[in-house]
Specification:
Elements lengths: L1 E5 L4 H11 L3 E6 L5 E2 L5 H11 L2 E6 L14 H22 L3 E10 L12 H17 L8 E7 L6 H4 L11 H13 L5 E5 L4
Parallel strand pairs: 1-2, 1-4, 2-3, 4-5, 5-6, 6-7
Helix pairs in contact: 1-6, 2-3, 3-4
This protein binds NADP nicotinamide-adenine-dinucleotide phosphate.
């Protein structure tokens, strides 16, 4: 398979990239890293990326940001960071990318545990994650030519524990092998419209 991974050099992305590269052709994309330069916040940049990469069998997005801050301090603009990056960045990858996925191919998006189990400071991140879950279920009903779409939602991953542990009291870090398997299930499996949760029901 030819697999495009946006965010393929990030904490999660590089592990997923390493795994798929063992048996597939992988192209990674990022704003400053990877084989192709793309900023998912910008539709023109997404279009230019697909023009250069051409058709693929799987598009995986493991990129997207949202502002973490106390709700009382969040401005309207602060919410737009998550809406433009993590939410619409991924929606636009699907909206534009549907013309660049081979029949029977797939999209895999990324959210996280905050959709179901938010912690303090995550009103924006939790909100966009939930929106992506609903988007994936809805758009799976309309994608043509057997194209599938799923979203991987993991808890705090092992490789990011040092950076984020203090935000997630009592959370069990998710082993990278388990996180990778969420993406494998989506890309190599047959399911569509699924929220692939990689955490215990905490
Ligand atoms: N870390 C966790 O424990 C965890 C758990 C569950 C879910 N998640 C979610 O998983 C995703 C990745 O997390 P991570 O920890 O791997 O993050 P990370 O280490 O910061 O990596 C993010 C990657 O995405 C790229 N990227 C960021 N914004 C982009 C944009 N607008 N356009 C194109 N590429 C962009 C970055 O490369 P450039 O800088 O070159 O653009 C980088 O390679 C995030 O959405 C995060 O919320 C993370």
């Amino acid at each position: 398979m030819k697999i495009l991974i946006i965010g393929g050099q990030g904490t999660i992305g590089k592990k997923v990239n390493d795994h798929f590269a063992k048996k597939h052709e992988v192209i990674t994309g990022g704003r400053n890293s990877g084989n192709v330069i793309v900023d998912s916040v910008n539709s023109k940049s997404i279009e230019a990326m697909f023009e250069s990469v051409a058709k693929v069998d799987a598009i995986v997005c493991i990129a997207g940001e949202a502002k973490w801050a106390a709700f009382e301090s969040m401005t309207e603009e602060d919410f737009y960071i998550g809406l433009k990056s993590k939410l619409m960045g991924q929606v636009n990858l699907v909206r534009i990318g549907q013309a660049y996925v081979n029949a029977g191919g797939s999209f895999t998006l990324t959210t996280g545990i905050l959709a179901d189990h938010p912690v303090a400071l995550t009103t924006s991140a939790a909100m966009v994650n939930g929106g992506i879950h609903s988007f994936v279920k809805a758009v799976s009903l309309e994608l043509k030519d057997g194209i599938r779409i799923n979203v991987v939602s993991s808890g705090l991953v092992e490789d990011a524990v040092e950076k984020y542990e203090s935000y997630f009291p009592g959370h069990n870090p998710i082993p990278m092998r388990k996180v990778i398997n969420g993406y494998v299930k989506s890309v190599e499996g047959k399911g569509t419209g699924e929220v692939i949760r990689m955490y215990d029901n905490c």
